[in-house]
Amino acid sequence: MLGSSTNLGTFEQQFPSGSYSFKVMSNTVETLAVALTLPSDAQMPQPNAPHLKDFASLQAVDASKPLPLTWDAFQGGGASDVIWVDVGGIYNTPNPGEPGALTGTATSVTIPAGILPPNTTNLLTIGFYRANFTTNAASNYGAAAYKATVTTVDLITITTSTNAPPPGLTSVGWGAKGLIFEISGSPGAGVVVDFSNNLQAGGWSTLVTTNILQTGKLQLADQNPTGSSRFYRAKYQ
Asked: What is the DSSP code (8-state) at residue 59?
């Protein structure tokens, strides 16, 4: 018997808690029975939804660099639970039982550099699976029942910033919002704009951390410039 449902009430009505037995038959082995206990919702509650810690950074990922992906710890997550991460079928963490598979206590994984293509939008899926596995001692056949909660978001890669020209500051002028200037650089890239009144060591402060628009430009304003002079610099994140 194989079944699933995205509605918890429907699933529990179709597959109430209790003991199930599965028969495995083939042309090469004798009939085997695999027993599986399906716990109640109180014993195996629905997992909480995965929550990514830094969603903004996923909207401008430099695919030439390793991407640390982090999320909040799952409530009650244990060694028997499973976390699975997939990015557009291009990258995914190992399946349950495979070396390197993520257990329910994991809170991060690093996507290696160079795997994701630049300038693409990919569907990132992270799921938490609370499962009950069983196997037949005389074979490799098994059965599993699980309840899962999955979160999907867009992961957007940008042009490799290391190959892009450094960001530039142009079109400086005064306006209703203060000192206005324009940043040009790699479309979608994350950028940090700093300012200083004296150019002395340790005298730089961050004005804004943002992303350059897909047009390759971004207009910013310093609403409260102070001092007789002020200097600005921009760098990729």
From this structure: G
